[in-house]
């Protein structure tokens, strides 16, 4: 059964990857060559019967290359990297083989994160990425973990984080702090706790509150949505889901037909960052938007995903497809927002409604309360109502 599920996941992964390539304007020749190579790989895997993770190993790739000596394997390596970045693989084929197996203390920390902190698979992948880089650095400079100092950590981070965007740097520093705390508190390897000393450059003026739509902008958005084509109906439903439920593009792309409970007006969201599936009440207008798309816009297909592509063979939409669809809708209406602007607007509505930080965390599906805190910026309307007793 596990083998069959793995083969189904491979079929879906290949479809998603090719759709992602198309959405990112890859050349038609490249798409054709990649599709051909991935179909050969798909046939090879079905004859070998292995788990999803074991499909993407260097040994498996060598065996495929031996049977298909003319294969260039670019597409397979690209697919593995795509899945790794999506948090669906713990490693990708671009990694050197000797870097994948970490020393015991690193693996123990990953197990600790999974069992003690219920870290999601996506988070574990990110932690492993940082640990691999740290291990390589220590090996290269012949540094023992017990001899780590903040100066050596700073040297590592200066080299490792060069070229990354600031938000990625913040996330990776946080992953490293967790490991350093573990070495000090749990393993007693370090003589002092280095975690608090791992800091980034001052951000002051760079700090920005989440971008959200104001009431007049929401009126303009929903007033500008059309319902004259299958594409319009699909976009209409996506925008409603992003605004009224605060769903991420990934969560929207993964909705299946059996996740929708029309009679109970509920939606089951299974793929969340905190790994806690939840059934959410759905407003009437959002239920109607999904129903309109199902009746008048969704093509007939064997796939069970709600949102499908517009061209044959009508495969499930990827996270990137959903993001581009909503972003393009905003752009056509002359609005400077993205798909996440609707999610931020949802959070802002929860804040205005008086929900606690922990309630907002659960509704948003955050895996950390730190992610939720960013919504606690000063809200001008609330400030004037509370401080000046004004009704706006």
Write the layout of secondary structure elements.
Layout: H1 2-23, H2 28-48, H3 58-67, H4 74-85, H5 97-100, H6 104-116, H7 121-140, H8 150-160, H9 166-185, H10 215-224, H11 230-244, H12 249-253, E1 260-261, E2 266-269, E3 278-281, H13 284-296, H14 319-332, H15 339-352, H16 357-364, H17 369-373, H18 380-388
Helix pairs in contact: 1-2, 6-7, 7-9, 11-13, 11-15
Task: Summarize the structure in short.
It contains 18 helices and 3 strands. Helix 1 (2-23) runs antiparallel to helix 2 (28-48) and helix 7 (121-140) crosses helix 9.
Please explain how this structure is put together:
The chain is mainly alpha-helical and 392 residues long. The chain folds into 3 domains: 2-94, DNA polymerase, domain 1 (Orthogonal Bundle), CATH 1.10.150; 102-206, Orthogonal Bundle (DNA polymerase, domain 1); 215-386, hpI Integrase, Chain A (Orthogonal Bundle). It contains 18 helices and 3 strands. The chain has helices at 2-23, 28-48, 58-67, 74-85, 97-100, 104-116, 121-140, 150-160, 166-185, 215-224, 230-244, 249-253, 284-296, 319-332, 339-352, 357-364, 369-373, 380-388; strands at residues 260-261, 266-269, 278-281. The protein has a 3-stranded antiparallel β-sheet with strand order 1-2-3, with no helix packed on it. Helix 1 runs antiparallel to helix 2 (28-48), helix 11 runs antiparallel to helix 13 and helix 11 runs parallel beside helix 15. The longest helix is centred in the first third of the chain and has 22 residues, at 2-23. The chain is globular. The chain starts with a helix and ends with a helix. The mean pLDDT is 82.
């Amino acid at each position: 059964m596990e083998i069959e599920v793995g083969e189904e996941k491979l079929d879906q992964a290949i479809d998603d990857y090719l759709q992602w390539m198309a959405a990112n304007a890859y050349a038609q020749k490249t798409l054709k060559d990649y599709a051909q190579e991935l179909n050969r790989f798909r046939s090879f895997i079905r004859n070998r019967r292995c788990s999803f993770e074991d499909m993407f190993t260097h040994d498996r790739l060598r065996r495929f290359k031996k049977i298909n000596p003319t294969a260039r394997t670019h597409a397979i390596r690209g697919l593995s990297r795509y899945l790794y970045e999506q948090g669906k693989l713990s490693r990708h084929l671009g990694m050197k083989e000797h870097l994948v197996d970490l020393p015991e203390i690193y693996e123990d920390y990953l197990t600790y994160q999974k069992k003690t902190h219920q870290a999601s698979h996506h988070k574990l992948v990110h932690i492993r990425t940082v640990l691999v880089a740290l291990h390589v650095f220590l090996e290269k400079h012949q540094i023992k973990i017990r001899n780590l100092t903040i100066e050596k950590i700073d040297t590592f981070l200066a080299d490792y984080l060069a070229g990354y965007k600031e938000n990625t740097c913040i996330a990776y520093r946080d992953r490293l702090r967790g490991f350093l705390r573990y070495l000090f508190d749990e393993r007693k390897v370090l003589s002092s706790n280095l975690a608090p000393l791992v800091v980034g450059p001052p951000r002051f003026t760079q700090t920005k509150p989440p971008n959200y739509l104001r009431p007049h902008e929401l009126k303009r958005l929903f007033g500008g949505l059309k319902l004259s084509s299958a594409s319009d109906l699909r976009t209409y439903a996506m925008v409603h889901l992003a605004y009224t439920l605060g769903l991420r593009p990934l969560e929207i792309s993964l909705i299946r037909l059996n996740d929708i409970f029309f009679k109970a007006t509920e939606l089951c969201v299974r793929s969340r960052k905190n790994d806690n599936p939840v059934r959410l009440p759905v407003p009437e207008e959002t239920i109607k938007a999904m129903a309109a798309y199902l009746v008048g816009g969704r093509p007939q297909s064997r796939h069970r995903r709600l949102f499908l592509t517009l061209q044959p063979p009508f495969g499930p939409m990827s996270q990137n497809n959903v993001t581009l669809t909503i972003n393009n809708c905003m752009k056509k209406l002359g609005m400077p927002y993205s798909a996440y602007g609707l999610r931020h607007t949802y959070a802002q509505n929860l804040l205005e409604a008086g929900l606690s930080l922990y309630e907002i965390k659960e509704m948003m599906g955050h895996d950390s309360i730190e992610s939720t805190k960013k919504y606690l910026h000063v809200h001008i309307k609330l400030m004037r109502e509370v401080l000046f007793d004004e009704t706006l």
